[in-house]
Amino acid sequence: MASEAVEHDYHLVEPSPWPFLSGLAAMVWGTGMVIFFTGLVSRNPDKPNAMTEFFFARGLDTIQGKDVSNGGWIILLIGCFFAAVVMFGWWRDVARESEAGDHTPVVDIGLRYGMIMFIMQEAMFFVGWFWMFFELGLWHKVREKWEIAQAECYGEWPVCEIETIDPFHIPLMNTLVLLLSGTTVTWAHHALIKGDRKGAKWGLFLTVVLGIFFTYLQGVEYMEAFAHRDGESFWLSTNVYGSAFFLATGFHGLHVLIGTIFLAVCYLRLVRGGFTPQKHFGLEAAAWYWHFVDVVWLFLFVFVYVVFR
Amino acid sequence: MVAVPGDDHAHDHKPGFFTRWFLSTNHKDIGTLYLIFAIVAGVLGGYLSFMMRAELGEPGIQIFDEDVRRFNVYATMHGLIMIFFVVMPALIGGFGNWFVPIMIGAPDMAFPRMNNLSFWLLPTAFACLIISFFVSGGDGDGFGGGWVMYPPLSTSGSPGPAFDFIIIGLLAAGFSSIFGAINFITTILNMRAPGMTIHKMPLFAWSVLVTAFLLLLALPVLAASLFMLLTDRIPGGTGFFNPAMGGDPVMFQHLFWFFGHPEVYIMILPAFGIVSHVISTNSRKPVFGYLGMAYAMVAIGVVGFVVWAHHMYTVGMDVNLKAYFVAATLVIAVPTGVKVFSWLATMWGGSLRFTIPMQWALAFIALFVIGGVTGVMLANAGFDTWAHDTYFVVAHFHYVLSMGAVFGIFCGFYYWFGKMSGYLYNKWLAGAHFWLFFIGVNMIFMPQHFIGMNRRHVDFPVEMADGNWLSTMGIIPTGVGMLFFFLMLAEAFIRKRPAGDNYWGEGATTLEWTLPSPPPFHQFNTLPRISDDDGH
Q1: Beta-carbon separation of B191 and A106 below 8 A
Q2: Which of B30, B220, B347, B422 has the most CB within a 10 Å radius?
Q3: Which of A64, A86, A98, A121 to mutate against chain B (most B CBs within 10 Å)?
Q4: Which ranges in chain A belong to alpha helices (H)?
């Protein structure tokens, strides 16, 4: 260029170690996943916990019906920790750049586009799980004609007279918890815009507490189901109903956890004096994400818990 | 926009080697990394296909005599590597990164750091695939269930870690593409130069925009189905695709092809964009029917989402459903026809130059139309039931990909090589590359239409020997052609003939030709202004 001076408002980011480290973290995490689910070496039944087996045999392993205690989860855990460190460093840089004034109005609009796109792809991820569930819930009749054991009972819904979870106990409670948290996060947002930082802190704090409460309730429901998996309840390995139920609600639960962490980080930033009434896109993005998680739950509640039970 | 060639290099302040290439936040450097990665992966993917063709040169077992199962592992890896690690990184990551910001008059991508994440997830994904090649898949090393990964071959049929590594690799590659898609959409919607309305945006940027939306909406569904496979594979895990638990293996095919069909447009749309520019430049005429060209790509993208089950005519679908998917698939021929005829009309009455990229572009049109016509044939359920899983299908998708998408890549490479490197290539070496490659790939794939052989077979009856022999002989010109490609690269970098700002002259009207070759480390410190009467 003829002139050195930068005469635009875009943010030219300095070189950063985080993307490269993310790639490495993904490698460790991925190897850990493979070891956890399948294992790199097969186990010698006589010496199930020799050095190599301890670290590299399947993490979810049983020998003759007994769970084998071993370290197959260690590399996965290291990968998760590595990824968490990278994410912390990365987003700390983003927050610092925001405070340094790099996020001009046009960059701010870009961040909004980015978050909308991210939520769009998350929605498509859940489309996959709902598609699976609807296929099972709507077109189960064809299974009567399959050449499988108990074909008759797979033609019904819920399959094989499985006792589904009563939607009007814990799940209804969960619905109310999430809807309430949707109002508290809006409270926090509007309080911040009005300059009422105390109200914003309270609203955000309550949202995080409600998020944790949701996860707790979901945990109670899962543990109940797991404890009675051979009798009156079901588990993800009982049949395809359990698979679809637990993976769909489980991935939603994972997103609640992510959303809660996102909101908690925003809470900490707020407490430490971050965000202004004019500039607080981190908080807004967390709120958008939280509403998205909320909507997914409403779909889960209506279709998985109530309609197709 | 006053560009002073040679002057700005001194002021560039490029960071040191490690910082520049590993910690980069510069769209041009990341684009270069993508292109180098695609070339490396392409050599490996090409090696796999050459081994398969060598095996199929004559009846009997030649190469895979130790473990014939390995043939299917090669076929699987060839497919996955070529799709996820060659075509997508080259077209979207490479040229998309290099030229989308420049064409829309932006200094960089919207999220330069996330851009680098998109790149660095790819070596991780590729490493997972390479590891998969050498670890146990159950009854031998590697996974041989095909790039489509249908259960039960990918669940109970492959109990070892080989397939888990493929799942992890594809998840990493998928996240890479999703982040890339978010980045491109945001860049194109938010960072166009003043005066560049969306209806003045160059067609390559349009093609990447549509592609990015396809990636954004299709890949998460693949991620969901990969997670289903992952948990289905655990003993005592889920049973989504296990009929004994009430699951449905065909459901995987639906989920997979809901991603897989948009994926084929993800691979070809950027090539459409490149070819449009090359033909317009070398006809010294604006592209014919610009808006029609742009919205034809949008139409292809939209309709591409509702045709997926035409890959599944033989799974026992209801005949009415098949009728729908036939009709919907045939509809795609309309916007594709709009594109082909608009390219022809762009050349009509133009002042044509048969430069190297123009040769690739013309070959692209001819060969893509051949692949498109066999595509229209295969779209019909009646014919497809007969041709399903035969070499007719193999020939079809290699005509649209290895001669469509890959010709698009070379077309773009020869069009922009001088802009990216700053050097001119030797036309004789490049021409030899083109002609050998053109003859070679046609020799490989044209006979495959007529062999009448099933896919994924390591051996064949002697009646099919002639076609297979001719097809295998085609790897010689193709391979020698690729050697000329590397010779061309080496020669250009040794001789260092400087390329001017606009070495195509009249007809090259997009913004990259207003910059020096190579462009400065950060271009457009003062944003360009597009006036109302500027073309596109």
Answers
A1: yes
A2: B30
A3: A121
A4: 18-37, 51-56, 74-99, 105-138, 151-154, 170-194, 197-227, 240-271, 281-299
Q: Are A108 and A73 contained in the same domain?
A: no
**Local confidence band at B336 (pLDDT 50, 70, 90 cut-offs):** very high
Shared domain for A77 and A134, answered yes or no, is: no
- Domain contains A90: yes
Position A69 scores a pLDDT of: 58
Q: How confident is the model at residue B5 (pLDDT cuts 50, 70, 90)?
A: very low
Q: Verify whether residue B311 is a known catalytic residue.
A: yes
Domain extent for A29: 14-102
**Residue A220: what pLDDT?**
94
Predicted confidence at residue A1, as pLDDT, reads 41
Looking at residue B4, what is its pLDDT?
Answer: 44
Q: What is the CATH number of the domain that holds A200?
A: 1.20.120.80
CB neighbour class for A119 (10 Å; exposed up to 12, middle 13-18, buried from 19):
middle
Based on the fold, state whether residues A48 and A138 are members of the same structural domain: no
Same-domain status, A241 and A296: yes
Is position B108 annotated as part of the catalytic site? yes
Chain A residue with the nearest C-alpha to that of B214? A121
Which pLDDT tens digit goes with each residue over B416-429?
A: 999 999 999 999 99
- B157 by Cβ neighbours in 10 Å (0-12 / 13-18 / 19+) ranks as middle
Are residue A96 and residue A220 in the same domain, yes or no? Answer: no
Residue whose C-alpha is closest to residue B257's, from B304, B301, B299 = B304
B298 sits in which H/E element: helix B290-303
| Mean pLDDT for chain B overall | 93
The answer to whether residue A2 sits within a structural domain is: no
Do A186 and A295 sit in the same domain of this protein?
Answer: yes
Cβ–Cβ < 8 Å for B436, B478: yes
Q: Is B399 a catalytic residue?
A: no
Same domain, A125 and A253: yes
Nearest Cα to Cα of residue B250 among B191, B333, B317, B185:
B317
- Closest B-chain CA to A17: B23
Query: CB atoms < 10 A from the CB of A220, how many?
Result: 12
Residue with tokens 């049109």: B365
A150 CA: distance to closest CA in chain B (Å):
9
Domain boundary among A74, A102, A130: A102
Domain count, chain A: 2
| Shortest alpha-carbon distance between residue A5 and chain B (Å) | 7
The one catalytic residue in B9, B455, B456, B457 is B455
* B88 secondary structure, DSSP code: H
**End-of-domain residue from the set A54, A69, A102:** A102
Contact with chain A for residue B257, Cβ under 8 A: no
Here the CATH number for the domain that contains residue A79 is 1.10.287.70
Mark whether B265 is an active-site residue. yes
- The answer on A30 and A158 residing in a single domain is no
CA-based nearest distance A102→chain B, Å: 12
Instruction: Decide if A6 is inside a domain.
Output: no
Q: How far is A10 from chain B (nearest CA, A)?
A: 8
Q: Are A10 and B107 in contact (CB under 8 A)?
A: yes
The ipTM is 0.94
Per the listing, tokens 């989860």 go with: A73
Among the partner residues B186, B189, B224, nearest to A129 by beta-carbon distance:
B224
Per-residue pLDDT tens for A132-178? Answer: 999 988 988 888 888 888 888 888 888 887 888 889 999 999 999 99
The answer to whether the CB atoms of B110 and A27 lie below 8 A apart is no
User: Active site residue: B24, B276, B280, B283, which one?
Assistant: B276
* Cross-chain CB nearest to B161 (options A2, A18, A34): A34
